[in-house]
Amino acid sequence: MPSLPHRLVQTLDRFNAAHPWDHNAHYHHWILRQLPDRFGSALDIGSGTGDLARLLATCADEVQGVDSDPVIVSQASALTPGPTAVSFTVADALTGIPAGPHDAITCVATLHHLPFTEALDTYRSRLAPGGTLVVVGLYRPRTATDHLLGAAAVLPNVALGWLKNRGRAAAPPTSMTARTRPAGMAFSDIAAQAHTLLPGARLRRRLFWRYTLIWRRP
Fold it and tell me: Domains in the chain: how many in total?
């Protein structure tokens, strides 16, 4: 007979499959609050179906979204009514991003797919002086704090899944159809490497198995 924790995990998996919601989109408005009320250029790396890019356009004069998946880039363009300051490009999230400089760079659930230090170094070089890098990323739970925070997210995760779907079963949002690869780096390693590359960066563990990083270029 499966242990109670295992059975609980199975039950939660079934519930989440029936009542899905986008954990990354949960942080989109938080990202906007980290940026100036008005600025020039924004770059959204791993832009998916473009929800964050379109939100950034409410305060940026120009927004460029890049994603390596041509199908999802096509969806993002179709979902973005024109004329608009938002454009989407099929490009590698490390080697193909526009040179900038950009006043804001956002990166949500993408960094763990890339060589960490190389990616941060690249994004740092693309920021304009005074520009802001905002990352919402995934990390591998390793410490007691990591596991406690993960456990604390279980009930809010269920509650939000229920509320966002109004109690009804639903298909996954379009931006969730591609499975996210599990993170390989622990939060402590992410923080240590980020502080070396980006002095003054602010990192925090967050609910729903995410962390955030904010850095402003001097």
Answer: 1
